[in-house]
Amino acid sequence: MSDLPPPDANPEAPRPPRQVVFVLQGGGALGSYQAGVFEALAEGGFTPDWVAGVSIGAINAAIIAGNPPERRVARLRAFWERVTSTTASLPALQLPLWDTFEQRIGATGAILFGQPGFFRPRNPLAWFGAGGPVSYYDTTDLLTTLNELVDFDLINARQTRLSVGSVEVETGNMVYFDSARMRLTPEHIMASGALPPGFPSVEIGGQEYWDGGLISNTPLQYAMGEKPRVHSLIFQVDLFPARGPRPKNLDEVAEREMDIRYSSRTRTGTDDAGDKQNLRRQVRLFLNRLPAELRDDPVAQQMRDIACAAEIDVVHLIYRPSVPQGSQKDYQFDRATMGRRWAEGRENARRTLHAAPWNKPIPPDVGFRTFDVTNPRKHHS
After folding, report:
1. What does the pLDDT look like over 234-249, one tens digit per residue?
2. Which residues contact 152 (CB under 8 A, 6 or more apart)?
3. In terms of CB atoms within 10 Å, which end of the chain has fewer, N or C?
């Protein structure tokens, strides 16, 4: 993949080999949608070369990278079944009011009792000590779960690259823990999902780290910052839709605010990445057209550092539920809701694979395209 063709290559020629990248956003209980997407992509033969995640996306990413391909979906299923609450015993009734009740029970259970294999409330006596805790929940159970479901030796063998985003508490800087550059442990994954004040920070190498979603909830920009860039097909799985209905009550207002807050960051980051990559491609095209006497000009030499021939397609798979989920949706860990989100992710990915718009020829001066097959308003750009 290092032998990049010139940007003015025959557009009808077969697409060059591309690395496959999965980019997984944070969103707590919404992350089961990502698992459903991955199941369909795996069925379609898309094995990732690189998985990058933040928060719950980091946990899903670690399970994917930390298992052989034939075991990944089963391990994702094991995780999501473990962390869903006992509301699995509630009957499934096709009634809107019942769905709302079930979701509220799931969210309330998470607040009061935590989630099995994930987090639990701190001992009430801890609040009476000097200083008190620095988080509401203890995440020791997640450490056990990661050690059971993820093979960190496999991750560090670098067969599938894994990158997870976190924030250094004292400096406020975004940091990526990357298996291509360091040895990863369960603590690196936990640090990416350590959302305050619910979860405690995680100490690594004498520094404390929190959830990467505090700064950037999607790792696309990190993946795009890799040098040298190579031809890539990136599946970006987002958990918060930009568009939504007008809120009718305070709970829907809170949900809509959450969606806008997170989706706007993702949209801005994607647009910025696209503008830069298209510019790099056009610079490359321009340099190829320079007459021989200008190719060694100092300005042209500087421009070569900017130029890039990589063709990058970003495929959006966005969780867009048909009915409001409520402001508690990121901690609605009930089993039935998890199953519906998983199924929707799988269906959306299957529709996207069937359309496969990334197989269309790319214009010579374009280095970055986005596709959103399941968006009823816009299919691609």
Report:
1. 999 999 999 998 999 9
2. 66, 184, 185, 186
3. C
Where helices occur in 24-95 by DSSP H, the ranges are: 32-43, 56-65, 72-83
Residue 12's CB is within 10 A of a number of other CB atoms, namely 6
What is the Cα–Cα distance from 81 to 113, expressed in whole angstroms? 17
Distance CA 315, CA 115 (A): 32
Token couple for 33: 């949608």
Question: CA-CA distances (angstroms) from residue 15 to 215, 281, 356, 367, 372?
Answer: 35, 16, 13, 13, 20
Mapped onto helix, strand or coil, the DSSP state of residue 175 is strand
Amino acid in position 35: A
Strand partners, 368: 312
pLDDT tens digits for range 202-231 = 999 999 999 999 998 889 999 999 888 999
Angle at 274 between CA 268 and CA 276, to 5 degrees: 105
For the chain, what is the radius of gyration of the CA atoms?
22
Q: How far apart are CA 184 and CA 357, in angstroms?
A: 35
pLDDT at position 99, please? 61
232 phi and psi, to 5 degrees?
Answer: -140, 145
**Per-residue pLDDT tens over the stretch 146-178:** 999 999 999 999 999 999 999 999 999 999 999
Question: Is 24:345 a contact under the CB 8 Å cutoff?
Answer: no
Contact (CB, 8 A) for 231 and 17: yes
Q: How many CB atoms lie within 10 A of CB 44?
A: 14
Question: Are the beta carbons of 171 and 208 closer than 8 angstroms?
Answer: no
| 191 neighbors 166 (Cβ within 8 angstroms) | yes
Q: What is the pLDDT of residue 159?
A: 95
